[in-house]
Design goal:
This protein has 266 residues and is an alpha/beta fold. Helices cover 44% and strands 16% of the residues. It has one domain (3-123, 198-264): 3-Layer(aba) Sandwich (Rossmann fold). Strand 6 (209-216), helix 9 (222-231) and strand 7 (236-243) form a beta-alpha-beta unit.
Length: 266
Amino acid sequence: MDVYAKHNITIVDEGSGPTILLVHGFGCDQNLWRPVVDRLKSAFRLVLIDLVGSGSSDPAAWDPAKYSSLSGYAADILDVVDELHLRDVVFVGHSVSAMIGALAALTDPSRFAKLVMLTPSPCYIDDGDYHGGFSRADIDELLESLGQNYLGWSRAMAPVIMGTPDRPELADELADTFCRTDPERALVFARTTFLSDNRADLPQIPLPTLVIECSQDAIAPREVGAYVHAHVHGSQLVTLDATGHCPHVSAPDATASAIADFARAP
């Protein structure tokens, strides 16, 4: 299968700096990176993709068995890197794609230079002293609601995820992106996202890593950012003066600046 068509690959080749691979989170697509792309494209080579089952990815590539595990998405990342002959990639993953990038780097660290985890969560469910932000009952209810009425769930959850009540147009854009996703595929990806537990992988991450969190985030609270930072050896933590789970949309200046500073650093 044509990897370019499979992932609707976009290459922005205006800058001469390191290559940055931008990968979206659950329910999103590459278009939500637009504000950050505008701020990074003069200095970096940018590669954007749609994960299979999202955006304008090839519908024929969908495999519910493969994508019931984050490792299926990680394998696709390595296919993209291989097809484009990329080296020394700065991988930027939003939300669940932060862990997808970590798994790809664990499989073949030779292709990557750095990892940026934007509002990551290795586990969304509370477990003993670990505070993921949700109980198992919360997640079961979320998945049930999503499965029963995906469009209604999207409209209800987008404002919570975006976290910018003073700018409702941002939540509307996120909801519109959710609603373009096939509900059956979205449910598979949601289960994969919200039921995964990758905490044990964090200490194994072999790359210089930047963790970017927001000061308030209903999906990945600051306890999660602190946990990721503490368990990824040598990582850096940046807390943006921003609310919500999608700072690349709501706070693109600060997000792009944090990415650029880390990508340029020796």
